[in-house]
Amino acid sequence: MTSLRHFFNEWFVDFFRYLRRLVLYFVRNYLSPKFAIFESFKSVVVGKMYQQRGKNAQLIVNVAVLTVMIIGVALGPSLVVNDSQTQAVLASGFRGNFAFAQESIGGESSLVLGLSTDTQMSVDPLTQVSEKPRADIFEYTVENGDTLAGIAKKFGVDTDSILWLNKGVNEKKLKPSTILKIPPVTGVIHTVKGGETIYSIATRYKVSAQAIVDFPFNEFTNDETFALAIGQQLIVPDGEMPMEVVSSPRGNLAMTPNAGAVSATGNWIWPAQGSITQNFRAWHKGLDIANHSGGNILAADSGTIIHAGWVNSGYGNMIMINHGNGYITLYGHMLSNLRVQVGQTVKRGDVIGSMGSTGRSTGTHLHFEVRTTSGNRDPLGVLK
Q1: Which residue has the higher pLDDT, 232 or 81?
Q2: 146 and 132, same structural domain?
Q3: Which residues make Cβ contacts (< 8 Å) with residue 315, sequence separation at least 6?
Q4: How far apart are the C-alpha atoms of 274 and 277, rounded to whole Å?
Q5: Distance (Å, rounded) from C-alpha 38 to C-alpha 42?
Q6: Full residue range of the structural domain in which residue 211 is found
Q7: 14 three-class SS
Q8: Distance separating alpha carbons of residues 86 and 128, to the nearest angstrom
Q9: 377 near 300, Cβ under 8 Å?
Q10: What is the maximal distance between C-alpha atoms in the chain?
Q11: pTM over 0.85
């Protein structure tokens, strides 16, 4: 048995030695010459490539950059169309294609606060980037088919403001080619006379002096005392011409009185009635509440007014309330007939102004923010 096992071991050893020598013979006589030819060919090709290295580098770089640009132009719009805020801005840029903005936010307009869905606007208002009001009086040439109401709507003012600035114009007999002066905002354009002050003018036109001061294009010879120069033109937003019939009441209401010592209740109320047209998002730090009929804006909680007037950051006429408990609320796009002043206090539920569409806005709505020291909070998380 042992001799048989020894025989097989020697046989396997001899067999593997045979295979090894067979492979070496095959490599030496058949593969080596072919490998030598391949190596020679490879050396020639590599040498040529090395000699012309970098010859087409500039061409390759230019083609790559051009390709990236073409892809960016072709695919860029598709990368942002799902952003409702971006769609609204694009729609506004193409002369008010608001249907596009409406489609962009789809089902987010379904939640209604205090109104039925039948009263929702045909366009969902959105907060957009900053835009100042017009500064100068615009001259408009009447065309066939124009009406005073249509012209007023086109420029965002009321018919009374146009009639007061164009004495002698007959609203019912508006002739083509007539040149009308259009004020920058609803209200009165006043030429200052001797002895007049910002306060006497405000009383004359039934507005607050603060509303005149806050209009960004009114200038004063002394910014501390608001002194005026004789002959200068002053824009009185929402002013009413004395002794004239007002067909479009301004809604200038009495100022909300100072509430005295107040403290936040922590029990928040809704600042306005309407439909939610845009929720809190990373790119939209507040809540948009729309109501085509406008309406009063209420203080969501008690606090002190720290801003009341126009700002150039897109909010238009804006009010901010410091509630003294780490929270500040912001109310944007309001009409200019603000009913509070900086420094006064308000109670929860006090009327502070009216819903409007000032600043960068696509329709009558309130932009409402809740701010804290650690950043903005979703208003839906604190409102009752």
Answers
A1: 232
A2: no
A3: 127, 330, 332, 333, 359, 367
A4: 9
A5: 6
A6: 142-237
A7: helix
A8: 9
A9: no
A10: 138
A11: no
Mean of pLDDT values over 80-101: 41
Number of domains into which the chain is organized: 2
Q: Indicate the helix (H) or strand (E) that contains 189.
A: strand 187-191
Contact in structure between 298 and 274 (CB atoms under 8 Å): no
- CA distance linking residue 272 with residue 354, whole number of Å: 9
Within its chain, how far is the Cα of 141 from the centroid? 32
Rounded distance, CA 267 to CA 99, Å? 37
pLDDT tens by residue, 14-42: 777 878 888 777 767 766 666 667 667 66
Could you tell me which residues come within 8 angstroms of residue 43 by beta carbon, excluding any fewer than 6 positions away? none
Residue 118's domain is classified under what CATH number?
2.70.70.10
d(CA 102, CA 109): 9
Domain endpoint, select from 237, 262, 297: 237
Structural domain ending residue among the three candidates 237, 268, 298: 237
3: left (phi over 0), alpha (psi -120 to 50) or beta: alpha
Ranges 12-16, 163-167, 264-268: which has the least confidence: 12-16
Q: Is residue 72 part of a domain?
A: no
Which residue type sits at 114? G
In this prediction, residues 69-78 reach a mean pLDDT of: 70
Task: Give the per-residue pLDDT at 33.
Answer: 65
Residues 96, 178, single domain; the answer is no
pLDDT for res 330:
97
On whether both 277 and 375 belong to a single domain, the answer is yes
Contact 322, 330 (CB under 8 A): no
Residue 229 lies in a domain: yes
Query: Does residue 59 lie in a domain region?
Result: no
**In this model, does residue 336 exceed pLDDT 60?**
yes
